[in-house]
Amino acid sequence: MIVWLVFLLMIFVFMAIDLGIFNKDAHVISYKEATKWTALWTSLGLLFSLVIYQVYQHNWLNLESMSKSPSQAAIEYLTGYIIELSLSIDNIFVIAVIFRSFKIPLMYQHRVLFWGILGALIFRGFMILFGVILIEKFTWTTYVFGAFLIFTAYKMLTSKEESEFNPKNSAIYRFVRKLMPVTGKIVDQKFILKKRGLFIATPLLLALLLIEFTDVLFALDSIPAILGITTEPFIVFTSNIFAILGLRSMYFFVANMIDSFHYLKHSLVVILTYVGIKLMLANHYHLPIGLSLGLIVVSIALGIYFSVRYRKQAV
User: Fold this and answer.
1) Are 218 and 124 within 8 A, CB to CB?
2) Which of 152, 159, 233, 256 is deepest in the core (most CB within 10 A)?
């Protein structure tokens, strides 16, 4: 319990420093600034594997039985972290579409993402707990999760371009419009305006709610994917959280280059299919965690490599 509290306190401090010091005033996140923050969050996410090693070496979680070695726990964390980062690419694209749809100025986008990610931490925590309990109590759910991931991979491979996505056609947008008045005016960084006794939703609130909603949808893919690697709650939760924390800076780093990763979707298809198969075999055969990490890294590397080649040939 102490380890969990220390980790949550650390995340709270990180976010308080981020919003209260470095991003206290609304400003446009430059490519250089986004690069620095992306490097920082990615480094912290990778280095946390050393913390995972120490946690399991000294059994700071007070587990009754140590079912895995510290090295295995660290590799499981790294594998889950890389999966979450990979699946974040699609999330970044949808966030970009939402911001463009509601004409959110660049200087206000960081604030929306901050509160969106704070909500995502809470929602994902409950979803992870629920997923772990299901797998531990009902072993047949691994077949369901596995089949769902394979189906998701198939849909990703055969789907049309994501540019067809229109946030204003979503149910959550129509729900908010029925619940309260909506204005197209943006006043500073306010999510809600009060005028003549009425609470009025601004485009910032609409964008925030849609980002929260789409993150829950993406979590339906990413959480079963990481549960295919490990069902240790602390590893699943921490790898998810570090991937989400890096999503804001990665958004400003990747959003303008999203078209450059033409073949990265194919890498995600391979990863989801593999993890789906791994889940379906979990009750019969355990695939080595080293194989999982290697396949995921190679898939992403090949996706980036062929994307760079495609871009050069298209010029």
Assistant:
1) no
2) 152
